[in-house]
Amino acid sequence: MDGFAVVDTETTGIDPTHRHRIAEVAVVHLDAAGAVTGEWSTLLNPERDLGPQAIHRITAAEARRAPRFADIAGDLVEQVRGRVVVAHNWPFDAMHLRAEFARIGVESPFDDLAGFCTMRAASIVMPNSRRSLVACCTTAGLPAMRWHTARDDAMAAGALFGHMLAQAPEVVRPTDEQLQAAAWGWPALARDLAPTAQRLPADHVEPHFLARLVPWLPRDEEPLVDAYFAVLDDALLDRRISASDADALVGVATRLGLRREEVLAIHHTYLRALAQAAVSVGERELADIGLVATLLGLDGAAVADVLTPGDRVRVDPAPTVGGLVLRPGDKVVFTGMMTADRDDLTARAVAAGLRVMTAVSRQTRLVAAADPDTMSVKAKDARVLGVPVVTEDAFVRALAALAG
């Protein structure tokens, strides 16, 4: 045996038989004395919505660019090969790891007895402690961590294991089942297929998508920008530009051969159209147009440029450019774990005359998502069909306006 591999996973939900997946995995190596000798972790693209994001705090913008489990399976195997695996509530991690390996056709030794469970052992070593990892670490006098991140939870479980190793070595002695799992004959799996992906710092600011537009050679003809305007319409429906929106805009601009300076000029034109289409330009609308200007990478002077005296009078109708307007009969679809109760949100939508559907079609007005960068099947279908994916907050505001 080469030591211990402390494992932790963050998942999209509890039960893998209900299509829940691993969204982050970490492994911390300990030697026979319980000292940390190495660590490895990565976010994963679960290829579905992320579930309880309020708990694990993984955003779809992070996960969508992370490797899939199949891409890192070989690397993960090398992290656990020859080591006794350890986890807090091992049966939960075992269940998800077993399911992920099964999805790629790889048999694994990860049953409930194959790993050492610090939660189960804590009931013997620290019988007065509650069962959560936080409670057990507190009882053991261990420092607080950034809980519900796979890396820090694995570090905490490793420290807890080390504490038990020192206090009650007879409790943490590996069993025959755990040693057999450590000696499992894993198949040869490819390694280094994709780089690992780490969580972004809390203060990370994503560069404006315009910064990703590379300069292009001049052309002899004016660009056809209707396609770009159409994508921009959808992107600004909820007054934000998500990572998915930014990718779409960059893709359209690139296909059109637009240079960065030309896109900025198009944004000025778009902002003027938005101002001219507004119901009125009072304090609220000025702030809204200023927000759109910021999203488009324009400075404050751009707002003053588009707001001529003629723009300040009431015009007809409601905004048709860059505004989310719902009408009775519109078909809407929900995806992800919303802040509001899903049944309540559905009831409010139906009462306002909307048709709440369970699948996306070309007739769907929009998909309301807990995270607009979600990788749920519904969101994927929406992007293929050109149906906008908007935030829950934007949908609720539009619903309130429809309900009057």
Automatic annotation (TrEMBL):
It comes from the Bacteria. Gene3D superfamilies: BRCT domain, Ribonuclease H-like superfamily/Ribonuclease H. Keywords: Exonuclease, Hydrolase, Nuclease. Residues 3-170 form the Exonuclease domain. InterPro entries: BRCT_dom, BRCT_dom_sf, Ribonucl_H, RNaseH-like_sf, RNaseH_sf. PANTHER family: DNA POLYMERASE III SUBUNIT EPSILON, PROTEIN NEN2. This is DNA polymerase-3 subunit epsilon.
